[in-house]
């Protein structure tokens, strides 16, 4: 079971509060996980993180990339939590496209 410790909750909420005060929009992104990873655990964790974010931000954005089409454990992961270069080359364009779709006004910066 993935649990969030009280100190982590406080630090997360302090960060979100700071960003909100400074007018910084927070985008939370989950990283890809191998298919063998138990999705229910991470889904519950992401739901809890989003609830915590809602306490501070009006409309927190969570991009769930735990399951990315085209990635497989054998060819695209260094270990259960890290992509290798081949995995990064599949994941990054998908992340960039999602960010471009969500924030088209920011594409001028890169």
Overview of the structural elements:
- The strands form two sheets. The chain has a two-stranded parallel sheet.
- A hairpin with a 2-residue loop joins strand 3 (77-79) and strand 4 (82-83).
- The model has no long low-confidence stretch (mean pLDDT 89).
- By secondary structure, it is mainly alpha-helical.
- The longest helix has 18 residues, at 85-102.
- The chain has four helices and four strands, in the order H-E-H-E-H-E-E-H.
- It is 49% helix and 10% strand.
Structural class comes to: mainly alpha
Number of strands: 4
Please state the average pLDDT score: 89
**Beta-strand residue percentage:** 5-15%
String of helices and strands? HEHEHEEH
Question: Terminal Cα separation, in Å?
Answer: 39 Å
Uncertain parts = none
Radius of gyration: 16 Å
What percent of the residues sit in helical stretches (DSSP H or I)? Answer: 40-55%
Helical segment count: 4
Overall outline: globular
Give the strand order, joined by hyphens, for the main sheet.
Answer: 1-2
Main sheet record: 2 strands, parallel
């Amino acid at each position: 079971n993935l649990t969030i410790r009280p100190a982590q909750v406080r630090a997360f909420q302090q960060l979100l509060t700071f960003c909100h005060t400074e007018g910084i929009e927070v985008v939370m992104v989950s990283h890809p996980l191998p298919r063998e990873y138990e999705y229910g655990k991470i889904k519950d964790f992401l739901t809890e993180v989003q609830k915590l974010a809602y306490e501070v931000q009006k409309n927190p954005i969570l991009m769930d990339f735990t399951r990315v089409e085209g990635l497989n454990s054998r060819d695209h992961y260094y270990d259960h939590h890290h992509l290798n270069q081949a995995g990064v080359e599949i994941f990054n364009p998908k992340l960039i496209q999602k960010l471009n779709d969500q924030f088209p006004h920011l594409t001028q910066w890169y």
